[in-house]
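Annex B. Sample input.
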Amino acid sequence: MTGNSFAEAFHYQTGEYVRIEFSDDGLIREISTVDCAIENQSRIFIAPGLIDNQVNGYMGVDFSEDGLSADRMEMVVEALRGSGISSFMPTIITNSHKNLLRNFRLAVKTLRNSNIRDSIPGFHLEGPYLSPEHGYYGTHPPEFVRKADWNEFLEYQEAAEGNIIQVTIAPEIEGAIGFIEKCTDSGIVVSLGHSNASAEIVNLAVEKGARISTHLGNGLANKIDRHRNPIWPQLANDLLTPSIIADGHHLLREEIIVFTRVKGPDNIFLTSDLSPLGGMPPGTYTYMGSEVIHTPDGFLKNPRMNCLAGASQTIKTGVENMIIFTGCSLPAAINMASKNVAKACRLNDRGTIETGKRADLILFESAENKINILKTIVKGRIAYTGGTTPNS
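Annex B, continued. Sample output.
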């Protein structure tokens, strides 16, 4: 049950029927247990809104396109709320210097719309400071992959009006270690990704402030050394929290189980790495200059290269898959898409149900390891009501 200033449902962790009251500024003011006749209440649960730190686009909208507008960004915001995502970081990827400046200028203009701003805490820059080795740069255009340049980055941050809050970088490239240190000193979250770094370099990057492994297990060459590869040192370093894509295509079930067991359920989080083809119906598309086949089960395939061409499933699917793949509890899986993301990305005002935190919440039903989002609440306001979105 929801009103203009409260929501009632079963707490996703405790199972108690709770009433959560909101303040006028969209924060959680009070949480109380409510007596109710359980048999007369449907099992509707309440949990923190989901948070995705890596969304490249959705529903045909590409955040790195030259036609990005507030209307197109708002369409993505509304669509993702239908999958329970109350916050996400638009992710701008490797491009020319000119185009990156353009992309951030366009993206930041959309934040003047308060409905958009309420769901976007900031931007994620993935690249252009990535490994130039074949396979490690993934689908990023290799002609624009380059050494780390702090002064260049400051131009992007100026274009983004200070809204770049996370950067993914390969720590082994020229200038990366100093760049990581400067990011850390500036309060920017540093992730390691698209990298072929040695254990020594990974650990040095962590010493300088890197704290996340971007979509661990992906952004790698198909053939890697079984001993000396970037995965083991990132798993071994307790200060690194990996994000993983649990869509059933990017990682094998066994990989997800191992990553979760090594790091523990509180030190791993879900990301989508959504492409602009996410949320689109199955079919054949052109994406980044190549033919891409979108299959009914959400697989995006580049038939010419016989490889993945991105992700199409939201982190709601990741939550469902984590329960199936690892046998973890529903609360643990939801935390991997909310609490853990907020902690790793330093979004300290959201991600948990606590007084003083943002009233970003989802009300949902759960059956047979599937989640049906009934309402998404953003800053105390009902931002979505209904069933799930197609292809979510």
